[in-house]
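Suppose you are handed a protein chain with no further information: no name, no annotation, nothing but its sequence. What can you learn? This example shows the usual starting point.
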Amino acid sequence: MQSNKTTSFAFSKSIKTPAQMQPCTPELLNAAFDDQHVSDTCQKIAAKLQEVKEGTLAREDFNKLKTKLKEDNLPVVCFHASFSDGYRHNQTAVPSGLSIYDVDHLEIDPRAYYINKVKGREVELGISLAHISPSNEGIRLVFEIPQGMTLEEAQRWMADRLEDDTYDGCVKDLARCSFVVCRDYVLYYDEEELFKEREVTLPVTIVTTDSAISTPSADKEYEDNFEGISYPNIVHSLEDVLGGVPAQGARNNFIYAMTCNMRYVCNDDPMWIAQVLPRYGEDEQKFLATVRSACNRPQNMDFPDIMKRALKLARTRQQADELAEANGIHAPKPPVMPQRLTKFMRLITKNVPEHLKPAVAMGIFPSLGVHCKGVKFRYNDNAFVEPTFMNVLVAEMSSGKSCVNEPINAIMLDIKEKDAKNRKLMQEYKDQYDACPADEQKPERPKGLTIQWVKSDMTPAAFVQLMADAGGRFLYTRMDEIGMLNQLKTNGKGNNVTEILRLAYDCGEYGQERVGTKSVSECVEVRWNWNASATPGKCRRFFKDAMLDGTLSRITFSTIYTDDDRMPLYGCYDERFKADVQNFITHLNEAKGLIVCKKANTLAAKMLEENRQYSALADDDSYRELSYRATLSAFKRGMILYILNEQKWCKEIEDFVRWSYHYDMWCKMWIFGENMRRAMELDRARRNLMELLPDTFTLDDLNAVRRAQGMKGDGAQQLRKWVSRGYCTYDPVTDTYTKSPQFLAKHPKAA
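A reasonable first move is to predict its three-dimensional structure. Written in structure tokens, the prediction is:
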């Protein structure tokens, strides 16, 4: 036996995506329990079951409808294991220490079964979750495997405790998954117990030699790739070429077909194939017998077209996966900041713990850019850009978001001192103006009283006047909450502050014309850098109406990621530290005019091409839209570090620029990726096509509209996306689709 500590089991949005298993979290599972789409699906299955009981629907038809509704609409959880490569198969399964106990086709109400046999014994039996199955005819118990037992032994143990002989005895495959149900079906849920860390004892595989193929040996090593393509990628692609993983009942034939094709890339070795292929829920001995039978079949020497297509698809996917891994946007945690940093970056981050350094490193650039007056950079498209930066630090409450404050205070020290003097002079002017009798000549507003560090609570007139007073310098604002941006309303027309945010990034023109002699009539170029912070939920809500207007791509996002819940220990921000920081800031204050660094432009060109390739391979429109300005922002960060480093380029700057891009993109995709994809699909051709359809329509109706729009191919895949996104619902009885209330609410013309 060998021991392993684990807390992880796997979750996926659909059983049809076996390559997208991710570690399950309480947030993911609770969101799935509360998903309206999950609830609607469970209600539909329950309604069809009632028709069976009433004799108006045949049991065979019900089973088909139930299977389709589950597979098309319900997320899945693999309580048995997590998967090191993200693919749901036994080869890379890491046991979780949990097992599921299924009792199907109960003749009594599942709730009655639970009350009679389980209720009150949950702790004794190690149960952390109990729920009614999606069929509404069974019950599922998730429990901790007693130490030293296999999955099969744990099943028998639970059956003995419940005095039960009707359970599903096939639940002994690590890759076996369960459909998620709605919250109403949950009978017992101990979240802390379900997600706790466990000491898992893993049985050692024993290899026998009494047949041509036995249980695959962990000791015998095979190649992990064919011509550079990993076997999990080949298996996944071959599954798709063969039409996808079948439902129970057709799995044996599917395993046979998979084996016949895998022979060509596994040296016709049945043990190799058995080590590579998933079990697809089949009994182990039956699976091995099927593999052996397929390998005994006479083989054509010609490489089959099916495998050629599968290898081509697998190679394309692997290239996309490699680029995704390099970009880090789908990783479970943000990219790690480089260890080697420039002198300035080492100084400014030295007083915070390791897990807070990325937040500080990204959050200081708005305040650094404020020190540059008249400084421009030439980007790769020959446009002149300025050091405009806007940063939002997104993290949970009490996670340490204030870590950026002291570094920013040290950077802004010189500006804060100047502002204090100018604020005093401005107050003296206001006092004189108010004290002067109405019939006497009022004093003129003094010129050149620049105040750069300003509050967010400004009227449009004050914003324009402060910008005009700055004379081409940047204004700066720091906000504890992202919602404080709403204090700046534009032209009294409500909350369209995102318009100013876009202008600020591009140094666009903004102003107002007024007739009154005391009113502000100015037109200025907006130079305004700022920092803000928010929790993930508040951040999504604040920007929910700005998914597609370019606001998000202009802002840089950062976060705080750590598994350590101890209180962070900070260093000392003393006078020596502040003086050292100000010595670097002198380089920014002295910089003037156009600053050129060919190596920075060369790096930007490489990154643009890498991002273009990844976007094309991944077919991710939201990533593509966000990547353009994210690359530009990374370039500008590199130019600021170049100035701080006495205009000397170095590898530390290049590494930081690359990391800062991938980190920014990871944060954006984590916070907004799914919302952006939904918004883009509604905003583009998919939405337009649905608006051309009646409220209830068929696949033939959609194909007719597609042909009328000059589009080729069948619309079945598009319909599946519409259903998964909640734009419409599918009725398998009538084989029709109906636009969802959510879609009709957003697009009333369609009604």
